[in-house]
Structures are given as C-alpha cells and as structure tokens.
Design a protein that fits this description.
single chain, alpha/beta, Rossmann fold, five-stranded parallel sheet, 6 helices, 51% helix, 18% strand
C-alpha cells in the first residue's frame, strides 16, 4: 500500500525540475513553447532532428516536444530513431505540426509518439498534455525501479 501511495504522490507533484527538449526549426515556435513550458523545468532547444538526437543521447530528457516538419531529418524519423534507442525508448514524445490531417497523427502514434498537437499552439493544452505525460513517465519510472 505504501508503494501505491508513493506512486500517487509522484503523479500529483509535477513541479519545475524536469528536463524538456523542445525541437522545431522555427525559432518563433521554439520561443512560444519555451514561454509556455518554462515553469515545468529546464528547457533545452534544438532546431534540427540531428541536433535533437545528439542532445537526447548526451542527456536523456524527461519529455520531448518535436515538430514533424523539419528540413533534413523530419520528426517522424527522429521519433523512430529515439524509440529504437534503449535509453530513450521510454521518453514521451509529443509531436507538433501545422497539418491537422489524421494521417499525420496516426503515423506519429504508430511510431510510438505519446501525443500529437496541431499548430497553432494553444498554451493551456500544451501545458496540460505535457504535465500528463510527465506524470505518466514518473509513474512508469517508479514502477520499473
């Protein structure tokens, strides 16, 4: 029973000590995401898929917000690569895109993304979804331990 109480406590306390990686090739979107999520923890930024993978491998984030459409390596390829890496497979990835077609959402979720958010970014939804996925990750990490 004490173990269950610890898990519930973890789920209820999403403070500002998380490591978030925000990935978008548009500096304006990075700015909006940074302003929206700054209270949830330490933010790191990448403007390309390759930089995102390098940064994630150096220090595994607690959550990644990842644009689908980027030159070079797109978000789908980044997500696929993250999910194939044993140390990063459990990191929740929230995909963002300006396309609201269902095929992008389905493709991302089938690759292992935790969620999908359409642009324009609505800060309240981004924060709520980020908190939910951080809570879920914390509980999963605690169960694995």
């Amino acid at each position: 029973m004490a173990h269950l109480d610890n898990l519930q406590h973890l789920g209820a306390t999403i403070g500002g000590n998380h490591n978030l990686l925000l990935v978008d090739d548009d500096p304006t979107v990075i700015g909006v995401l940074g302003k929206t999520l700054h209270e949830l923890g330490r933010l790191r930024f990448a403007t390309s898929g390759r930089d995102a993978l390098r940064m994630a491998r150096l220090e595994a984030p607690d959550l990644i917000v990842l644009d689908i459409e980027m030159p070079g390596m797109d978000g789908f390829e980044v997500c696929r690569t993250l999910k194939s890496h044993h140390q990063l497979a459990d990191v929740p990835v929230i995909l963002i895109t300006s396309h609201d077609g269902g095929e992008h959402e389905v493709a991302g979720l089938e690759l292992g993304a935790a969620d999908f958010i359409s642009k324009p970014i609505r800060p309240d939804r981004v924060v709520a979804r980020t908190r939910m996925h951080l809570r879920t990750k914390l509980m999963g990490d605690a169960l694995r331990r």
